[in-house]
Design brief:
The complex is a heterotrimer of chains A (about 425), B (about 280) and C (about 475).
Chain A (H helix, E strand, L loop, with lengths): L1 H20 L5 E7 L4 H14 L5 E7 L5 H7 L7 E5 L3 H6 L10 H8 L3 H7 L2 H6 L1 E2 L2 E2 L2 E7 L1 E4 L12 H10 L3 E4 L4 H10 L4 E3 L5 E3 L11 H12 L4 E3 L5 H7 L2 E6 L4 H8 L4 E3 L3 E4 L2 E4 L3 E9 L6 H11 L2 H11 L6 H4 L2 H5 L1 H12 L1 E2 L7 H13 L6 H15 L5
Parallel strand pairs in A: 1-2, 1-3, 8-11, 8-12, 16-17
Antiparallel strand pairs in A: 3-16, 4-5, 6-16, 7-12, 7-13, 9-10, 14-15
Chain B lengths: L1 H33 L19 H6 L8 H32 L5 H12 L7 H10 L6 H9 L7 H8 L3 H9 L4 H12 L1 H17 L2 H6 L10 H8 L5 H40 L1
Helix pairs in contact in B: 1-13, 3-6, 3-7, 3-10, 3-12, 7-13, 8-9, 10-13, 12-13
Chain C lengths: L1 H27 L2 H5 L6 H5 L3 H25 L13 E4 L4 E4 L5 H37 L7 H7 L5 H27 L21 H7 L8 H35 L6 H13 L2 H11 L5 H8 L2 H7 L16 H27 L3 H9 L4 H29 L2 H8 L8 H4 L9 H10 L4 H26 L10
Antiparallel strand pairs in C: 1-2
Helix pairs in contact in C: 1-5, 4-5, 5-7, 7-20, 9-14, 9-16, 10-14, 11-17, 16-20, 19-20
The chains are: A alpha/beta (about 425), B mainly alpha (about 280), C mainly alpha (about 475).
Amino acid sequence: MKKLLSLLLALAMVLSLGAVAFADDPIAITVWGAEEDQTYLAERIEAFKAAYPDQTFDITLGVESESTAKDTILTDVEAAADVYAFASDQLPDLVNAGAILDLSTVEAALQALAGKTLDDIKAANVEGAVTAATYNGAFYAFPFASDGFFMFYDPDYISAEQAQTWEGLLDAAAAAGKKVGMTLASGWYNTAFFNAAGFSTSLNADGTTNMDWNGTSPDGFTGVQVVQAMQAIAGHDAFMAIADGDISNQIAGGDLAAVISGTWDTKLVSDTFGEDYMAGALPLLTLGDKQVPTRGTVSFKMIGVNPHSAQTGWAVLLAEFLTNEESQVARFEAREIPPTNIAASGSEAVQANKGVVGLTEAAAVGVVQSVGGKYWDPTASFGEQIAQGTIGTDEAAIQTALDQLVEGVTAPVG
Amino acid sequence: MKDKKLGSIISHNVLIAVLCFIWLIPIVWLVCMSFSARPNMNTSTFFPQEWSTQYYKQLFQPDTVNQFPAWFMNTFKIAIATCIISTCFTLMVAYATSFGKFKARKPLMNVAVMLNLFPGVLTMIAVYFTLRTFGLTNSHIGLTLVYSASSGLGYLICKGFFDTVPRALCEAARLDGCNEARIFAQIVIPTSRPIIVYTIISSFLTPWMDFVFAKMILNAGISSQYTVAVGLYRMLDKSLINSYFTIFCCGGILVSIPIAVLFFIMQKFYVEGITAGAVKG
Amino acid sequence: MTKVGSAVGGFFRAIGNFFGEFFTAIAKGDWAVKLSLIIWGAGYAKRRQYVKAILMTLLEVGVILFSVYFASQYVPKFGTLGTVQFAQEFNIETMQMENNDYDHSFLILLFSLFSFVVWAVAAVVWIRNVVHAYQLQLDAEAGRHINTFKEDCMEYLGDKFHITLLTPPIIGIVIFTVIPILLLIFVAFTNYDQQHMPPNSLFTWVGFENFKSLFSNGGMTVTFGYAFVRVLGWTLVWAFFATFTTYFGGILMSLLLNSKKTRAPRLWRTLLVITIAVPQFVSLLLVRNFFSNGGIVNTICANIGLTGWLRSIGLISTSYIPFLTAPGWAHVMIILINIWIGVPYQMLIATGILMNLPTDQLESARVDGANKVQTFRYITMPYMLQVTAPTLVTDFVKNINNFNVIFLLTDGVYTTTNQLMANSQAKEVDLLVTWLFNLTQNYYNYKMAAVIGIVVFLVCAIFTLVAFNFLIKGDKEGVYQ
């Protein structure tokens, strides 16, 4: 007991001394970015320091993938980075946990030091990205990249005309002895088929999701019809259902003639399919006697600021700096990631990039996803059931499966 | 008659060879993959189409993802510290419960049994916040404490071994005027080499094996702070596996070699220690 | 049951003695003993044990300071777990956010528990202190020798050596195991989840609500109870198979290797031990890629026509063999992979134990004309079982909580096709612990995770009690002493 107490006292003293000693230290900010962005971010952080020469900064750069940022941050908000990159679908959870700063609270500082208002930032970026960074009317994050999936195909096996429809695509691949790959076991991907029929999802203030895929869409299609169309695709000999996250491996594997993926695979596709690879919107889906575009998910990557940061003001300035036009251009040059900044996306290099063209084409018919935390597991399972063909072709069985899906997705959060 | 016997010997050894072969397939694959000339997994043939040692070289050229030399040193330091604290704690508790004759002995042992029944993963979040209160998250000291502080609970095998140490020796020493501390240090410890080796090896290995706690506590995302397990685990992340799978294999091999060597040197003691402990424990 | 009864009786008698001594000391002690109720060092000071007196008084001061400066911030809020919501405001002068003096429910809970533990220990020290002071008084009155400080210290290396040995490990265990477990138990009675996450929100006590929602449908999710029963079922099945397959596998392997017919047994044993030397996270992640849907094993199976044949007889409906991605397949594969990892280890243990197998029994069996199977059935196995029964029980409990194997093999790979399981964020291959890990890591459902944790504990506790009472007769301690 004595030991414990003396240990505690000693620790308390060390901590309080530390607090005093560091009071006049440089402005310490931690930044989290994706593994692939580390080199680029390190350069831009140096540029930020150079932009404010009369301040001393101590900026630490850490690794946290955009897709898992929320999980790490919410475990301990107070220990999380001051500035972090994340994928737009995490915004509602971050807001509800109080892990992201409403930027209007620090707009004055932004205006005073960077000379920009939030309206300037909103005007500089594409509308979809601004919408995705807004939740319940408040603007929370600086968007920096479009993120979504589209189709790559190998023109050696598939003609542009064949790539217009799923049937054409699959038949062409089958004829060449190749496969068409897509991830079905993820709500990010498989929602494309339901979106095609006019279904949608929405998010309530309490974090629950609205979903009506078991009914009839505004366009007059039923959920059962969508599932049947998906089953026709998944059951095709040339279709390969790829596990979530395994797409890159499968592209590298060399069996694919076409794949549904995103800009992160551009280089790999170019290596595997050859430099003449093609990229474009997803094929048309046949529903009943109509053909409708398969509407992929449009999402964005953005940088947010932790309200529990000790240096909130400077953190916001850094976040803005890392997403301004200059930074977005630099990022595109480093990683071929399509910018959200309107001026940056106007450049010739961006316009000529096939991956960007593919993403733009897919985004033209795409849908911004709005879902809560309970959406992901049930939809992943549903996609896997279609991939493995466990639901069956009986309409009543499909309807039951859809009912169960909706029940799981719309369940209360708690 | 002789032929029949020979036949049975051959079939017996062939059976063993087949079993060992099956057991080694994944390990052989690991070795082969680590010498592959491509960064990603080869899914079309068992052996690499092209052989190369370039990824071993790359393993020692740190980049933003791969900091293997730093990870190795971190883990090594943590392992040494964990090993010392854990071994001391385990031996202390084992001696006290085996040789001690105090009233609270049985109740304490029962409490220890109860505590061992709670799943460790569960208490992780509370451990994390306790460490954070003392400013020990993102520190190797904190991680060492997590691995070693509760090690006293794993005393049973060691106690089982101590129970087999002849009491006559201790009684004689006591008559000679030795106090308990000297009996512990000069009589019991020297006769317990197998169990000490066993304890040292198993506590030394903990930091090399665990990644759940390490991932939770080293959460600043700074790669050079990681342990080998966290670092290598990250290499198999969706976005990285394609360029780092072969490096992961190289890292896996390099981690296994020292552990394997340790095992072979200590194998005899290890078997003796664990069996003597298990017989009684 | 009588054993348990006497244990319980003994427990209460011990408590009775503890307080009995205390009250006797107060009643019969002189003024110094009574004063040491307030000033801990008083009793020692009167007997001229000044160093001890100062140390005890300092300890008392420490406890008081701890209570005033630390515990007082948290313990009074323990009843509500805090009422002041987090709020902040931006100050453009300092470029920093200014927070209000908010309550952090989790820290209130954690530090209150910490304070309770400190106070509990302090109370015991206080009571023992008075008893010791009275003891000293008796010694002094009877004219017995009173220890100097040095002699007192020496006692901690002599008769009280166990206290010296046990104190540091127990402090470690209390901070890193006991307090976290207590915290877990308390969290099960709160509404700590994603809607109530400190520091931005508060959580509070809800009584038995979480336990009710575990066992009634319509609580946390519509299918929570459904998923719970299935996960529990697989947990028990897994623990059973994982324990017994590796156990018997290890024995058979060791018999095989140690047979007189084996040539170069050391070589074979070394080869098998290599699999232990590769850290589990490496070997498991490797095996998971080895057997993945697009992995090398699938390529080979497709090339030799196995995949096609399995498809034609209707065992699989996919173009690959779903080794780790379909229920049934994955269950079997997980157990097989566990055999791969576990058998060499069990083989080492079995080898050591079989070396001690009494040879006279084997000899007489051979003389009686018993064949190998009979020898194994009637001599080797009973001996092994008798020796290893306790470890078999602890292995079973370890397997119930075997996080590594399941997590490393299935996390991010296995997607359930059972919608009702998915609706509860569970998978068919989840153990209770991996499910719970998922609930806390991805869904922040700490309250339900705590409830499941308690259930895991109860399952393990019941199993252990039953196993020890019925399978293992008698207490073997002391046989060798």
